[in-house]
Design a protein that fits this description.
The protein is built from six helices and six strands. With 176 residues, the protein is α+β, with helices and mostly antiparallel strands.
Length: 176
């Protein structure tokens, strides 16, 4: 917990410096965004891991376009399907998040539909629905706030921050 607070204080100070200096290069911003991500997710796993812990999270950018899975998203879900097929003891909660663009009610509905769509995609490929649950969080759990995003000096860097908030989590909720 102390580590999280230290990171938050550090990030707040970096953003204040950014406001006054108006010049932080992309490498520093990438480090800042990575630090925000790391502080948000203390327990993570990858598709290459073989040992798992309940509560660990895999975070992916499952791409949607106009409410449908984009081809890039389907490729990513194919890898996740193979992972879940090889690790039959894992039960996961699929959580989708949006950014702050759009109205809150719309973002909540969109994230729920996306999470549900991911679950049904995996189920259609052969993963038992009893191993899958889903939830849409909309904009309720941002990694980087809108206020922090707006302090970034360029539109490109602001887009990177928005993209960090748009994500799909696969959280291990139980292991048989």
């Amino acid at each position: 917990m102390k580590r999280v607070w230290c990171i938050i204080v550090l990030l707040t100070n970096l953003l204040v410096v950014n406001t006054y200096a108006q010049t932080i290069d992309s490498t520093n911003i990438d480090s800042l965004l990575q630090a925000k991500f790391d502080a948000h997710y203390l327990k993570t796993f990858t598709l290459e891991d073989s040992v798992f812990e309940v509560g660990s999270v895999l975070v992916e950018d499952v791409v949607f376009y106009d409410g449908r899975l984009h081809q890039k998203g389907i490729r990513q879900l194919s890898l996740i399907f193979e992972f879940l097929k090889q690790n039959e003891s894992l039960h996961v909660l699929i959580v989708n998040h949006t950014g702050v663009r759009g109205k809150e009610a719309y973002n909540n509905a969109v994230s729920k539909r996306r999470a549900e769509g991911v679950m049904y995609y995996l189920a259609s490929k052969g993963i038992s629905e009893s191993r899958l649950k889903y939830s849409g969080k909309g904009e309720s759990d941002l990694i980087i706030s809108q206020e922090e995003t707006l302090t970034l000096p360029t539109k490109l860097l602001q887009e990177k921050a928005h993209a960090l908030n748009r994500r799909t989590e696969f959280k291990i909720i139980s292991i048989d």
